[in-house]
Structures are given as C-alpha cells and as structure tokens.
Specification:
Layout lengths: L8 H6 L6 H26 L7 H12 L4 E2 H8 L3 H13 L3 E6 L5 E6 L6 H17 L5 H12 L4
Antiparallel strand pairs: 1-3, 2-3
Length: 159
C-alpha cells in the first residue's frame, strides 16, 4: 500500500486538495494575464500604426528569412497562429505596403512572404515602443529573476 503523499506548500497556499488542480490554475492565469496585458500593449502599438502585436513577429520572421522569403506554412508553425488568422494579418500588412506575397503553384498553393522596401527594418522601428510597453506593463509585477523563471517555465509548454 502506497503511503499518502502530503500536499505541497504551493497546493496548501492555494487551498487545493489535489495537486493536479495546478494545471487548471496555470491555464486560467495564462488567459487572465493575456486579457489584462494584451489590450494595453496593443493600444500602445496602434498609436504607431501597428494593429496587432503579431505584426512585429511576422515582420521579424520574414526579415530573418532573408532574400529567399518566409514560407507562410513555416510561419504558422513558428508563431502558433492558425492559417486563417495569419492570412488575415498578412493581408493587412500587405495593404500597409510592408510585405508582399509570391504564390508558388503546387498542390498546397504555397505562399512565400517578402518584405517590401517600406517593410525593411520595420521591426527595428517598432521594437523600442514595444519594449517600453512590455517593461511598463509587466515590469512592476515581478523581479527580473521571477521573469526569467516564468519565461523558462512557459518555454516548457512549447515544442
């Protein structure tokens, strides 16, 4: 017969009678943190003409891809954005004149993304504003050590 394992200090802190509830707590706190910070950071970026924080990541990844361009399918996987949502963002970036698409005729209707002249270095112009918004919103709530610990823990959730 297995001895009953005592609950951890963390489970006791939350008043949980089962430690598996910790996974539920992670989920709900992740989405609540997203709902708290996302609108504030997005508002800051909108003031400089960036409609969504994902635009920064798209521009950065397309620039990193270099002259060969960034396949849309690889971008979906890297950014964890469903195809329909990524297509919508890309269409808006295209309309702003920041990227262009090339279609390759094959079975999968492959799309390759490239930066336009206007889009070159755009992520570098966005970054200082984005940086300040993240620092202002998240910095007051945790120490640098806590931020690194949280970042390392969140990485475990990603492939």
């Amino acid at each position: 017969m297995d001895p009953i394992k005592p609950l951890s200090d963390d489970a006791l802190f939350f008043g949980d009678d089962q430690e598996c509830i910790s996974y539920n707590r992670v989920w709900f706190n992740l989405i609540r943190a997203h709902r708290k910070f996302y609108p504030r950071i997005t508002k800051t970026l909108k003031a400089i003409g960036i409609s969504d924080p994902i635009w920064y990541e798209i521009l950065l990844e397309v620039e990193r891809a270099g002259p060969d361009g960034q396949p849309m399918s690889a971008l979906e996987e890297r950014l964890f954005v469903p195809q329909y949502a990524l297509s919508r963002h890309v269409a808006r970036l295209e309309k702003e004149g920041l990227i262009r698409r090339t279609y390759i005729a094959d079975v999968r209707r492959k799309q390759i993304l490239f930066l336009t002249e206007k889009g070159q270095g755009m992520h570098a112009r966005i970054w200082p504003i984005y940086w300040d918004a993240m620092q202002d919103e998240i910095g007051p709530h945790m120490s640098v050590d806590d931020a690194y610990k949280l970042a390392r823990l969140l990485i475990k959730l990603l492939p």
